[in-house]
Amino acid sequence: MASSTNNNQPFGIKDKIAYMCGDFGNDFFFILISQFLMVFYTSVLGINAGVVGTLFLVARFVDAFTDIGMGRIVDSAKPGKEGRYRPWIRRIRIPVVLAGVLVFIPWVANLPYALKIVYIFVTYILWGSFCYTAINIPYGSMASAITTDPVERAQLSTFRSVGASLAGVIVGFVAPMIVYVKDEAGNQVLVGERMFILSLIFAVCAFICYTICYKWSTERVVTETKTAEKKTSAKDLVKGLVGNRALVSIIVAAIVLLLAMLLAQSMNVYLYQDYFKNTKAMSIASLLGTACTLILAPFSGKITKRFGKKEASSAALLFASAVYVFLFVAKIKNPWVFCGIILLGNLGSGLFNLMIWAFITDIIDYQTVMTGSEDGGTVYGVYSFARKLGQALAGGLGGYALALIGYQSGAGIDQTEAVKNSIYAVATGVPAIGYLIIALILIFWYPLSKKKLEEIREELDKRAAK
Predict the structure, then answer these.
(1) 442 with 314: CB under 8 angstroms?
(2) Does 7 reside within a domain?
(3) What is d(CA 160, CA 165) in angstroms, rounded to the nearest whole number?
(4) Is the pLDDT of residue 29 over 90?
(5) Which of 94, 123, 142, 311 has the maximal Cβ count within 10 Å?
């Protein structure tokens, strides 16, 4: 598969801002749904938590086909004047935001229970398995077409993470203050109509971000579409992907990461709502988490350049695990003390989150060296599916965990002390175990050390010079 580079428009700040806006737009709904959809379904629509967990697992089964299928479509598409990936952002930006709004229609609560279940299955799968996939796979794959320079790709990864963090602070800080009210008993109650209005506002913001991403980004690396003779067979493709130790290990790490992060995030809603009875503290915790990302962003490139992505990330994750172990044992009662300690944990996990997309770029290069085939869209599609699987497991297990510990669905219900303590245990224990497992995966399984990456770059340079 031959490729060429268009240098008429040099890589610059517009590319970085454009790529930042892509995940900024994605995460308005990705984070909103990760943090609030479970409680919206259970408290506003009155859906059983176990049913919600089943929905998330079923949707991920659908993703196994749509994510990888979209990756193959992208890899097979013929590049046009706009490039191979950018046109998808233009085409899907309206459908994806409309689908996100449909998820949060509060008047569904008035439907018969069976129809409510049908509605949440249809709208959630429409948003996540089809619309979000159709815009996220091309967007994520586009980094390899914007630049071939490893330093510039690392900058794109950092800016992408900053975009996600900006969305996180808006969703995490603003949303709780808008969608919650106190009832006469002092309980925090999520108001469905407010959630719907907020989703409309976020839809407009996401559309603007997608438009900036589309208009300001430039695809410089043009890769020729495979001819029939050059196309990789399904058997060889699967063999190459399964044999990619870096990809397999990072997929497992991604599942564990999303399980730890999103299960904790989904539990945090209940933690601050029911255990601490202080949703304002949840806003502050989210704000501090974003502050950690912004503080680390200017230094992440220097740290990883000196020590390596694998080496620096594994050490940071071990530190994050230790912080959550302390929280689990200490059983903090003051929400503000809890927020302060969480800040330290975010410093530990933040570095890995900043560099995760640069890990994927390295893995695509590793795949190219191993197989001689450039299947960046498919590799990204497989990884995207793994992330969604982690998200589903977090949401699904979150629903099952709530049901198992005896959480009572419905507005204004004061949970028992046993339920509250169990929520705290899950919210702190899962990240402690998860971050430790990821660190061990990076140390003992993931093969792309700093030295190995230098060897891969030398090999690719040799091939390009031939």
Answers:
(1) yes
(2) no
(3) 9
(4) yes
(5) 142
Which residues, in sequence order, are CB contacts of 178 under 8 Å at separation 6+? 194, 198
430-263-58 Cα angle (round to 5):
125
Establish if 425 belongs to a structural domain. Answer: yes
Cα gap 276→55, rounded to integer Å: 29
**Number of independent structural domains in the chain:** 1
* Angle between helix 450-465 and 335-371 (nearest 10): 40
CATH for 412? 1.20.1250.20
Fill in the DSSP letter of residue 271. I
Q: How confident is the model at residue 60 (pLDDT cuts 50, 70, 90)?
A: confident
DSSP state of 226: P
**CB contact at 8 A, 148 and 5:** yes
Report the run of H or E that residue 377 belongs to, with start and end: helix 376-404
28 lies in a domain?
Answer: yes
Q: For residue 2, is it within any domain?
A: no
pTM: 0.73
Residue 42, token pair as written in the block: 């259970």
Question: Tell me, what amino acid is at 67?
Answer: D
Burial string for 163-174 (b: 16+ CB within 10 Å, else e) reads bbbbbbbbbbbb
Burial 366-401 (b: 16+ CB within 10 A, else e): bbbebbebbbbbbbbbbbbbbbbbbbbbbbbbbbbb
Beta strand 188-190 with 180-182 is antiparallel
In the predicted model, is pLDDT for residue 226 greater than 60? no
% helix / strand / coil in the chain, to the nearest 5? 80, 5, 15
Predicted confidence (pLDDT) per residue in 90-108, tens digit: 999 999 999 999 999 999 9
pLDDT of residue 237: 60
The predicted pLDDT at position 342 comes to 87
pLDDT for the residue 295: 82
**Structural domain of 367:** 12-220+235-465
